[in-house]
Amino acid sequence: MDIVKQGKAPLYDAIKKYIKRDMIPFHMPGHLQGRGVPLYLKKLFGREIFKFDLTEIPGLDYLHYARGVIKEAEELAAELYGVRKTYFLINGATAGIHTMILATCKKGDKIIIGGNAHRSVIGGIIESGANPVFVNSEFNKEFGIITNVTPDVLEKTIRKNLDAKAVLITTPNYYGIQGDIKRMIDIIHKYHMYALIDESHGAHFPFHPSFPESAIAYGADMVVQSAHKTLPTLTQTALLHIVTDRVNTDMVEQLLAMVESSSPSYIFMVALDVVRREMALNGRSLWEKAIETADYARKEIKNMNNFKVIDKSVINGKDIYAVDPIKLIINVQRTGFSGFEFEDYLNKHHIEIELSDLQNILLFVIIGTVKKDIDILLDALKTVKIKESKIGKTVPFPKAGEQIYSPEEAFNMDYKLSLIDKAVGKVSWGIVAPYPPGVFILAPGMRISEETVDFIRMVQRNGGMVQGAVVQGKNIYIRVVKN
Is the dihedral angle over the CA atoms 13, 19, 21, 23 positive or is it negative? Predict the structure, then answer.
């Protein structure tokens, strides 16, 4: 890595230079670099940010035909991550996931999908017309968390589907739990398939040795990282890395121009450019502080009787191969609270967390988190009053059901609402996923099982949210294919 080159921020510098020219704008966006912004927005954001909200004007390049400063900024990102090409994404990791699928699978092609995939993966399958083969992920009973696909189960599935074109693996999961990604990539390549990795929660991995190794290091063909999840950048910013020369970059660029906005945000792109520079110059020291803060939190919480935390002790070399140290997972079962209820409890103490599930809460301890924040959290944990649990019978994360139609076929059929009590055996029309973490439990065309219905009831009953389930009063409905 050329540290002198990495000290530059070409897109940021170009825009700053343009702003100094004080040009008279007769172009979009409609706020005219802040001149026409409503007073309330000026008070809220100031005017400076609107000066950066530009359009494709001479000297500032164009994301979907990058030949100038955007191309230079993306090349610096590629050098930093050690990949063949990097593309800035301004429609989130979802755009990258859809592009990976569309670039490797045509209508009717098989694609093997890890069962812990985000719902956005199903969207990409619908767009491509591909036929998914789902591989069930493991489930950690102690914490009630879906983890990862194991290499052995993956290889068995591949050997039954040797005509598949690609395999899409999601790891680490939302909780920072990574599977044996090296072995999985090696297996995928052994059978001459594309290794597509949704590494949305791993954009920070290259910047400190305590983090799990990125799939990039193990030769995945394409890797998507949701930069905004852990890096100090803006919501909706992400990265698509092309690692091997097996990938047709002409195809990728055409697809990105289709799945992303044709009016890309320069604010988003500048954020990616500047954050890349910050990670290159100061990433290790910044993450060192964050890891120390997270370790302090875990140490203190482990000394409390009413909570458990996930740490390296859960690593088993199968579905759990590494754990991200900046993800603070606290199991609250012993308190009598569900994770959803405990989130509400912390909100009353002015603490906002990343997510809650039936048994756990998840907090991100990242750049900007300080020891004082952790101390406030610890005080809230110490003062919680234990109560009798009302969670009732728990149901494990359901396995993927039988695929009756391809997702594209099902999504193009008529649908109707079905009471959840009468939905078992019917075919799902839409995507159903508890959110967060957004891992699908039903895809279009999938047979609805009794365990899936039980899981939806359990999450709804305990205060969780299930996207795709329609709640009307006390009744829960699912959209099913109309016979």
Answer: positive
Contact 344, 352 (CB under 8 A): no
At the topology level, CATH places domain 62-278 in Aspartate Aminotransferase; domain 2 (3.40.640)
The whole-angstrom distance between residue 270's C-alpha and the CA centroid of its chain comes to: 21
CA dihedral 391, 395, 398, 399 (to 10 degrees): 160
| 3 burial type by CB count under 10 A (0-12 exposed, 13-18 middle, 19+ buried) | exposed
Domain boundaries, the chain: 7-60, 62-278, 282-382, 407-481
Beta pairing class for 110-114 and 166-170? parallel
Q: Per residue in 176-234, pLDDT tens?
A: 999 999 999 999 999 999 999 999 999 999 999 999 999 999 999 999 999 999 999 99
Q: Are strands 327-331 and 308-309 parallel, antiparallel or unpaired?
A: antiparallel
CA distance 107 to 226: 27
- By DSSP bridging, strand 166-170 and strand 360-364 are unpaired
Which structure tokens are listed for 208?
């400190």
CATH number of 282-382: 3.90.1150.10
Torsion angles phi and psi, residue 311, rounded to 5: -140, -165
CATH for the stretch 407-481: 3.90.100.10
Task: Write out the two tokens for 386.
Answer: 């234990």
Which of 179, 309, 294 has its CA nearest to residue 230? 294
Q: How many CA within 13 A on the CB side of residue 376? A: 13
114 contacts 135 by C-beta, under 8 angstroms: yes
Cβ–Cβ < 8 Å for 418, 469: no
Q: How many CB atoms lie within 10 A of CB 32?
A: 14
- How many residues are given for the chain? 483
Confidence (pLDDT) at 483: 78
The low-confidence residues of the chain, meaning pLDDT below 70, are none
What SS3 class is residue 105?
A: coil
pLDDT at residue 393, as a whole number: 79
Alpha helices in 348-481 (DSSP H): 371-382, 407-411, 450-461
Give the per-residue pLDDT at 391. 85
H or E stretch including 87?
strand 85-89
293: buried, middle or exposed (CB in 10 Å: 19+, 13-18, 0-12)? buried
pLDDT recorded at residue 394 = 83
Q: pLDDT at position 392, please?
A: 81
